[in-house]
Amino acid sequence: MADRCDIAIVGGGIVGAAVALGLSQAGFDVRLLEAGAAPPPAPEPVDPRVYAIAPSSASLMQRLGVWPVPRLCAYDGMQVWESAPERALRFSAADVGRVQLGWIAEQSQLLGALWAALPARVPMTQARVLAAEYGSDAARLQLEGGQTLHASLVIAAEGAQSPLRERAGIVLHSRDYGQQAVVTHVECSEPHRGVALQRFLPGGPLALLPLADGRRSVVWSLPADEAQAMCALPDDDFHQALASAIQFEAGAISASTPRLLFPLRLMHAEQYVRERLVLIGDSAHVIHPLAGQGVNLGLGDVEQLLTTLTQARDERRDWSGLRVLRRYERARKAANIEMIALTDALDRAFRTPVALLPRVLDNGLALLDRVAPAKRLLIQRALA
Ligand SMILES: Cc1cc2nc3c(=O)[nH]c(=O)nc-3n(C[C@H](O)[C@H](O)[C@H](O)COP(=O)(O)OP(=O)(O)OC[C@H]3O[C@@H](n4cnc5c(N)ncnc54)[C@H](O)[C@@H]3O)c2cc1C
């Protein structure tokens, strides 16, 4: 006998788990299918994967009852520069009357909190979808192990490599940045004082994010061969190279955790919805990590989908029908395209070989720092 539910969510990362929790709290009968194991308890001492969480994402998670998570580090300042720290653009939360610009949170803490809050019947771990059929009455998912699940709507939250997106034949626009991000946590002689540092280098941006235990998390985007060489360096040489690349704004670097590598691509699905299928999170869009916005965009999708589906249901309309799903698509495409365009333009601009352009951008950052209204506007857009 087939199991039946209102909504099947495929993929239990941060975005999938958040939408599963929100929809079950709104009264939908939900199943969450995750191909991997349930998230492990948070590794000690600190998960190497951390995210800059924007205030809008924090407020969604607060409404879901999972915020704050342990070991958050609030950051209230940002320093962004290209040639020299004296010419940096400096943001502060106080510039826009806030206490903080955002928080650095560990992936495992976020996942752990979301999964722990799910009602017992919702998660189906280690459930892989073998085939999907979208009929006029329901979607039918064929699961590993011979089980069948019927749902009025399927939400793909499978991350960048989304089999449901591919099987549905949705066109994906994709470009390889030719870069990889080196990710590690480091100990620095200068305290971070809650300030995130970002320097635009010709090979790609380098960010040092503050952590709750006083260390900093590094995300260093480099051409793929240089990133691999950086990972192979002995610790002392890597610490020297990093301290010098960030122009000693973090002081000397004395220790680091094992370096991880992440290939960087830009991806955008041409459609977010099909009959009985919705894409959210990285299944719909993958952006450069330079603005720290991937999870935040995914949680923006979650917020919009929760609103669209509950509103339609409360107004007794066909909440799983294409007309309603297209409302979600229109709203999120506009917001996501804006961020895709911004991150892509920033990456291209600072890496362009045109001799004069970096100087113009460098002057631009220094100038922006001195024009209070423009700076305020920029911060407000970043926090939206
Ligand atoms: C170096 C780096 C730094 C970043 N920093 C930031 C940052 O500071 N802030 C920020 O907001 N974003 C950041 N991002 C982006 C962020 O990592 C992603 O946007 C985010 O992880 C996407 O979440 P997701 O839930 O959509 O997908 P994923 O995290 O990829 O989760 C997908 C889940 O689906 C499961 N799955 C996949 N296929 C199937 C299937 N067929 N059946 C069942 N389950 C399946 C997987 O096991 C996984 O659990 C960064 C990215 C990188 C590479």
UniProtKB/TrEMBL annotation:
Its cofactor is FAD. GO terms for cellular component: ubiquinone biosynthesis complex. PROSITE patterns: UBIH (PS01304). Pathway: Cofactor biosynthesis; ubiquinone biosynthesis. Component of the Ubi complex metabolon, which regroups five ubiquinone biosynthesis proteins (UbiE, UbiF, UbiG, UbiH and UbiI) and two accessory factors (UbiK and the lipid-binding protein UbiJ). The keyword NADP does not apply. It comes from the Bacteria. Residues 5-336 form the FAD-binding domain. One of its GO terms (biological process) is ubiquinone biosynthetic process. Belongs to the UbiH/COQ6 family. It comes from Hydrocarboniphaga daqingensis. PANTHER family: UBIQUINONE BIOSYNTHESIS MONOOXYGENASE COQ6, MITOCHONDRIAL. GO terms for molecular function: FAD binding; monooxygenase activity; oxidoreductase activity, acting on paired donors, with incorporation or reduction of molecular oxygen. Gene3D superfamilies: FAD/NAD(P)-binding domain. This is 2-octaprenylphenol hydroxylase. Keywords: FAD, Flavoprotein, Monooxygenase, Oxidoreductase.
